[in-house]
Amino acid sequence: MQKGAPPVEDLALHIPTDVIDGPTSLIFALVAVLAVGWCTVAARRGLDERLVPLAGLATAFIFAAQMLNFPIAAGVSGHLLGGALAAALLGPWLGALCVTVVIAIQALLFADGAVTALGLNVVNMALIATFTAYGVLALALKVLPRTRWGLGVAVFAASIISVVAASAGFVLQFWLGGEEVGQSLGAMAAAILGTHVLVGIGEGVITAGAVTAVAVARPDLVHALRGTPLARPATLAETLPSKTLPSKDAA
Amino acid sequence: MNAVDGLHRPGDSPLHRLRPQVKIVGLVAFTCAIAATPREAVWAFGIHAGVLVALFAVARIPASWVLTRSLVESPFLVLALAFPFMVDGPAVHLGFLTVSEPGLWAGWNLLAKATLGVWAALLLAATTPVAGVLAGLSRLKCPEILLQITAFAIRYAHLTVAEVTQMRLARLARCDDPRFLWQAGALARSLGTVFIRSFERGERVWQAMSARGYTGRLPLEVGPAPASAVQWSAAMAVPAIAVAVAAWTAVTL
After folding, report:
1. Which pTM value belongs to this model?
2. Does the pLDDT of residue B183 top 80, yes or no?
3. Which residues of B touch A54 (CB under 8 A)?
4. Domain count, chain A
5. Closest approach of chain A CAs to the CA of B2, in angstroms?
6. How far apart (Å, rounded) are the C-alpha atoms in residues A204 and A157?
7. Are A68 and B191 in contact (CB under 8 A)?
8. Which residues does chain A have within 8 Å of residue B203's beta carbon, measured at their own beta carbons?
9. Which residues constitute the domain of residue A66?
10. Substitution target from B7, B65, B72, B76 for chain A, most A beta carbons within 10 A
11. Closest-CA residue to B194 (of B169, B170, B159)
12. Which residue would you say has higher pLDDT here, A32 or A110?
């Protein structure tokens, strides 16, 4: 990202002022406060006094990850929402907490998303995205083989579904408290969800690449793997010293 | 680095000197007033905008900067442009276009309120440093644990962003130039590396902190300064104007 250049082509979901009416915003703000409070308690249970430094650094990482613009096609780029990345690497509680902090920083320091819509944005991008991604990931890892490809496919699917679920959260909020668009709501929902399938594919490719890279180097840091490393891929097994010895003898 | 320090523009205007907690409350009240203003009261939005423009002038923030930064809301402007064609209702003719009247109002509503909301938030972001925003939130009784995480995140975001930038330069120096998504593998792997480094750094920071006797609370004796009644009343005058305008238009229309 060029210094100081405004992120014009970024696909952002941050809801501005009064797209959703007051009562709906208030209800979702209340949901967000309760859920984030619960996430804080649950994350602290896992990390105790390590919570502040580790969550702080993880948030800094999500923040940096969102600054990485990736190419969608020539001239168009997008950036990660980070929900699936946070869920896979940090787990649902800490992950949702970190994404929430990122969204709050963006609203207060970057004027991205209205302060009155903070609750809506947190519910969509931090809570729905992270928890959906974690649910899909947990299910997919039960079915798929525990290899690089299995993990990659699981993370890819979890990313797409989480991005679409987050945009579905917006459609729900719009249906509850947005403009009365009548017949057009279906068309609008289809347009929003369809666009976000495309966004989700981009998110999925990057997230799957990042998570498998971490899983190969430090499997203990991938929360979704629950401490068990991946099965060793065949290409690596062939280069192990025990397998190379016979060939040396033959030579 | 610009990318992490928010949009703060150092200065010495009365708005810069105002205590951050006052500005945050003012921003929330002002945004609520904008949201509550009926869409048909076009002149009321003129007053809201006039107030904001005057404040930008007081804070010596150039209009070009505000307009560039307002592009953050551009995805929603597409929605505003789509409303006249989506919303049901009596049709009006605009040249060769036939659009619905309630749809036009909905589009105007979104355009006006989103722009004013972004401007108000930009005013806070431009006149308040990061530490100030955190101090203000602390005065407003925001949970301390969230503020500590945020403070850590912003402090170390400088490092992680610098790492990401450095890796991007290193890739470019080795002729990496992905133009399509399926070429983005190196980018994804470097993201994984940044995560491992960040997490390991987090563990090192925690070890250093616990070596200095950290037990889960920061031993801060000095809290952020309170704001005087004069500051509160001066700052609340602005949202008060907006609330008065919103209430007046809601009654008269």
Report:
1. 0.83
2. no
3. 199, 202-203, 206
4. 1
5. 7
6. 7
7. yes
8. 50, 53-54
9. 22-236
10. B72
11. B159
12. A32
CATH number at residue A210: 1.10.1760.20
Nearest to A71 among B163, B164, B181 (CB): B181
**Cβ burial B121-148 (10 Å sphere, 16+ → b, else e):** bbbbbbbbbbebbbbbbbbeebeebbbb
DSSP label at B140? Answer: T
Residue A174 lies in a domain: yes
Nearest-angstrom CA–CA distance, B126 and B64: 13
Residue B97 backbone class (left: φ over 0; alpha: ψ -120 to 50; beta: rest): beta
- Mean pLDDT estimate for chain B: 83
Question: Are A57 and B205 in contact (CB < 8 Å)?
Answer: yes
What is chain A's percent helix, strand, coil content, to nearest 5? 75, 5, 20
Number of H-type helices and E-type strands within chain A: 10, 2
Residues of A in contact with B72 (CB under 8 A): 6-7, 12, 14, 110-112
- CA-wise closest residue to B21 among B227, B223, B237: B227
Among B121, B125, B153, beta carbon nearest to A60: B153
How many angstroms from the chain centroid is the CA of residue A251? 51
B31 touches chain A (CB under 8 A): yes
Report how far residue A202's alpha carbon sits from residue A198's, in angstroms, rounded to the nearest whole number.
7
Residue with the larger pLDDT of the pair A113 and B26: B26
Condensed to tens digits (0 to 9), the pLDDT of residues B222-233 reads 667 788 888 888
Residue with tokens 């203990």: A220
Point out the least confidently predicted range of A49-58, A128-137, A160-169: A49-58
Q: Contact A181/B148, CB-based, under 8 Å?
A: no
Q: CA triplet B206, B194, A155: central angle to 5 degrees?
A: 105
| Cα distance between residue A203 and residue A102, in whole Å | 17
Q: State whether ipTM is beyond 0.85.
A: no
Q: Is residue A216 part of a domain?
A: yes
